[in-house]
TrEMBL record:
This is ATP synthase subunit b, chloroplastic. It comes from Najas flexilis. F-type ATPases have 2 components, F(1) - the catalytic core - and F(0) - the membrane proton channel. F(1) has five subunits: alpha(3), beta(3), gamma(1), delta(1), epsilon(1). F(0) has four main subunits: a(1), b(1), b'(1) and c(10-14). The alpha and beta chains form an alternating ring which encloses part of the gamma chain. F(1) is attached to F(0) by a central stalk formed by the gamma and epsilon chains, while a peripheral stalk is formed by the delta, b and b' chains. One of its GO terms (cellular component) is proton-transporting ATP synthase complex. It holds the Pfam family ATP-synt_B. The gene is atpF. InterPro entries: ATP_synth_b/b'su_bac/chlpt. The chain crosses the membrane at residues 33-54. Keywords: ATP synthesis, CF(0), Chloroplast, Coiled coil, Hydrogen ion transport, Ion transport, Membrane, Plastid, Thylakoid, Transmembrane, Transmembrane helix, Transport. In plastids the F-type ATPase is also known as CF(1)CF(0). It is a single-pass membrane protein. Residues 65-99 form a coiled coil. It is found in: Membrane; Plastid, Chloroplast thylakoid membrane. Its main location: membrane. CDD domains: ATP-synt_Fo_b.
Length: 187
């Protein structure tokens, strides 16, 4: 401690007298005074400027926070809207899927029904064609049977007529002979 008091006493020897003006080149003696003066001036004059700067910064930070909150709120709203649209689109997709499946089933049933109707029509047409061909065959057989019966009848008739014509010829000849005799008798 004695060293410290000795250093202060030695500093007093270097201080200029009170009546003179000049620069003190002793750094240890002048720095605390200068610093306190500078700090006092800065605090006195800079307090308003510093307060204004801090208030402006505070207002910008608060404004940024409010803007961020509004952006977050609008982003949340947009997200909810997007989720609603997604749910709606998913419902519509499910409806289309269900309707598509039912439409496919309906088309399948219609196709099966149409094919069944076509097969029935083909079967009916086939049966009608068979009946027509059968009737035609029956008619041809009838015509042949009728033609053969007619030919036999004609043969029988011709044969009968030949026999009868001979009989008629004899009858006529006999009658002519009787008439010839009667004429002779009457003459």
């Amino acid at each position: 401690m004695k060293n410290l008091s000795d250093s202060f006493l030695s500093l007093v020897d270097y201080w200029p007298s009170a009546g003179s003006f000049g620069f003190n080149t002793n750094i240890l003696a002048t720095n605390p005074i200068n610093l306190s003066v500078v700090l006092g001036v800065l605090i006195f004059f800079g307090k308003g400027v510093l307060t204004g700067l801090l208030d402006n910064r505070k207002q910008r930070i608060l404004s940024t926070i409010r803007n961020s909150e509004e952006l977050r709120r609008s982003a949340v709203e947009e997200l909810e809207k997007a989720r609603d649209r997604l749910r709606k689109v998913e419902r519509e997709a499910d409806e289309y899927r269900v309707n598509g499946y039912s439409e496919i089933e309906r088309e399948k049933a219609n196709l099966i029904h149409a094919t069944s109707d076509s097969l029935e029509q083909l079967e009916s047409s086939k049966n009608e064609t068979l009946r027509f061909e059968q009737q035609r065959a029956i008619n041809q057989v009838r015509q042949r049977v009728f033609q053969q019966a007619l030919e036999r009848a004609m043969e029988t008739l011709t044969h009968c007529l030949n026999s009868e014509s001979e009989l008629h010829f004899r009858t006529i000849s006999a009658n002519i002979g009787i008439l010839g005799t009667m004429e002779e008798i009457t003459n």
